[in-house]
Design goal:
Low-confidence stretches: 1-5
Structural class: mainly alpha
Distance between the termini: 7 Å
Shape: elongated
Number of strands: 2
Strand content: under 5%
Length: 210
């Protein structure tokens, strides 16, 4: 005669209850895995976002500032702003300001990853933008020396490099956490499977004795 603790119906009910708890734990794990915790880097990123905004209103080339480059104003045409400068300003505002702020507010790992990729591309675009402002014949057809890159362009480029570094550290740390979490989940699954097989052997033994 079996006890109530070894009753198959009781064991099934217990497994169902534990299954519900396990589902809740997995949901909590997925939520935590999808979030970032930049810590003190959040302050650095926030300062970089402010600096990026300020760099847009500072001169990028001659009398043309970042807003002139963005809106293609008369000052922008007068300075013969090349395509790399335009691309850089757009990337700076979209990723250096937009996605960086969004990642800080939402703390989502995916958004931080997008901010990282965009900041890296913007850093390359910044190099090309500075190159066009220091290369004869790039911005005009008369082979005259162009006005060099302004303080706004240089400041924005350095800011994007700093953002790329800090977002890379945040994303890399979260990636390592993902790997550790997956390894822990695999170990728990293996232990649970082994425990289930042991219980099946015990139940079969009790049924054969009965």
């Amino acid at each position: 005669m079996t006890t109530s603790g070894s009753n198959p119906a009781d064991r099934a009910a217990e497994r169902e209850v534990f299954g519900e708890f396990e589902d809740d734990l997995r949901k909590a794990e997925r939520k935590v895995a999808g979030e970032i915790d930049p810590g003190a880097r959040a302050v650095v990123v926030a300062v970089c976002v402010l600096v990026a905004i300020v760099s847009v209103i500072l001169p990028h080339a001659g009398a043309a500032n970042g807003l002139d480059v963005l809106t293609m104003s008369s000052d922008s045409h007068a300075e013969h702003i090349a395509l790399p400068s335009k691309i850089f300003v757009y990337l700076l505002l979209i990723f250096g300001v937009g996605f960086s702020m969004l990642a800080l507010v939402t703390r989502r790992w995916v958004i931080a990853w997008i901010a990282l990729c965009g900041s890296a591309v913007a850093s390359v675009a910044g190099v090309l933008a500075l190159w066009t402002r220091n290369t004869v014949g790039v911005d005009s057809l008369d082979m005259t020396a162009p006005s060099s890159g302004g303080i706004g362009l240089i400041l924005g480029w350095v800011t994007m490099i700093v953002l790329t570094f800090h977002w890379a550290r945040v994303v890399w740390a979260r990636t390592n956490y993902h790997l550790a979490l997956e390894d822990e989940r695999r170990q728990k699954a293996a232990v649970a499977e082994q425990r289930g097989r042991s219980l099946q052997k015990i139940v079969k033994g009790q049924e054969s004795n009965d």
